[in-house]
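Suppose a colleague, Dr. K., hands you the sequence of a protein chain of 419 amino acids and asks what its three-dimensional shape might be. Before reaching for any lab equipment, you can write down a predicted structure in token form. Begin with the sequence itself:
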Amino acid sequence: MSVYLPFVLLAALLVAAALLLVLPPLFGAGLQRRRRAADVSTDAGQAASALTVLREQLAELEAERAAGTIDAETYARSRDDLEKRALEEGEAAAATVEARPAPRLAIALALAVPVLATAIYLALGEPAGLDPQRVAGQGGFSREQVAQMVGGLEARLQQEPDNVEGWMMLARSYVVLEDFAKAAAAYERLVALVPDNPDILADWADTVAAQHGSVSGPAEAIVSRALAADPNHVKALLLSGTAAFERKDYAAASAQWERILVRIPPQEEAARALRAGINDARAKGGLPPLAEAPAPAAPAAAAGAAEGGSLTLAGRLEIAPALRERAGADDTVFVFVRGGGGGPPLAALRFKAGELPREFSFADAPRMGDGPVPAQLTLTARVSKSGDVGARPGDLEGRVDRVAPDAGGVALVIDTVRE
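The predicted structure, expressed as tokens, is then:
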């Protein structure tokens, strides 16, 4: 029996619970990451696949910020790096028709397997999406290239032993390479730097469980530490319930998972799958099944009318006359479109300052997220003197708020200097 089976379900349900913390587009990201190799057509090419991976990393970064795993400075630095990489990959994939996942359908297909026939952590059957060769390949990198990058990160951490973000990246990279012993050691070092962080502790426990093939072992003590730091931590509760299930303490397993179920909207597929798993545990423990969830209320006629999937925003970009001399012809110009409430970019464009003034359009720009497009958007432009996505003092900027996704003829003027 594969040691990964418990963790596929854990990841899927954890992402469902993350709906309580982050935007709905994040729903199903954990499961998609593990199943992407089986769902995405290989005809999209390496560049488009790499862009897909970067989207997921951006979603994970948003989730980590919402959960408090990383501070604002680390979030901003990491997001800037992902945006820059997404721009580079997006330009290579611009001519490719993007294959968009259907998160709810993916979760329904993955979680609606007969949970009642086996233990909840076996419910998903063959976890082909966990094959690290596929995970590496979907980002356009071979295992050898990933290993080489890990070697570079190890060397960097020798010079910067207190780099929290670096240790986190190293631990996750080792998981991709299936080197769980080194991944666990990296997490142990990370916990020494950031003690009592429930997210890091839960990830460490997950890795130790993969290393030993069971949660009800060394990993369970780490799970207890995570729950001591946050008694309602979703992943820790999932792991704790799995450990109890492995010990055949079905009542305890059901109790832990029920604490998660109450936090997931009952109409979600993941909630129904979790309910089935709980009822399986309750049946094995001689307990009655849970009461049926109430039927969801009928949606309003206008529900969802304000949001859609089309982004055709277009207009003209120029630098204000007073600032033209401050922009070199080879300076990089970034144009981002975000939801009106902020958050990560939905799409981005890149030009040279020497091309301005010029027309722009997001109609063919690769999307950096899979969710619906908000009804109101914020459009920003930045002339980067350094060439990096990250904003720095001296950069020239412009902004337009409350723009419709299908607006045309938008005048975006770069008219301020960043202090």
